[in-house]
What does this fold into?
Amino acid sequence: MTGTPSRSTDSAHGPAARRSDASRSAILAAARERFATDGYERATIRAIAKDAHIDPSMVMRYFGSKDGLFAAAVALDLRIPDLSQAPRAEVGRALVEHFLNIWEENEELTAVLRVGVTNQAGAERLQGIFREQVVPVAQRVCPDPEQVPARAALCATQLLGLALTRYVLRLPPAVALAREEIVAWLGPTVQRYLTAPSP
It folds into this structure.
């Protein structure tokens, strides 16, 4: 009897568990790549499974559906820094700089945006990311708590609009802008949305 718990504990970290973790990781990596290149609608479970060298039934076993796989693959942390110690007048600039870094370093976020403009599941995922991670920034600096959702949404128009034109549609003038120019243009706008008196 005393040996049974030990065997159970070992099995939780044994070869089968490691294979399961490796399989999940391979599926998620393949899914991110497929969603980024093909979009949500065109990416298929079969293609993702082939890329991951996994049987399609295993994808369904781990994630249940394509929606479930997409949600797991794009569980993104925007890593927004703690801006509570930043000068209040610099929050807009700091936010734009941070999002430029995020968009340029994280292809998953671009994939979410690409899917979000064409698919309800993608749109809901993107809404959740911004609701959970951008709204708290507005809460810390907004002068009127009742306006936090609207002000956060206005910030999103700038941050998402920048990403859509620069990284998804790749409009040449938007792509050609230097980072310093983007921060100089958008920083004051985002700052106004966050802290200016209500019109």
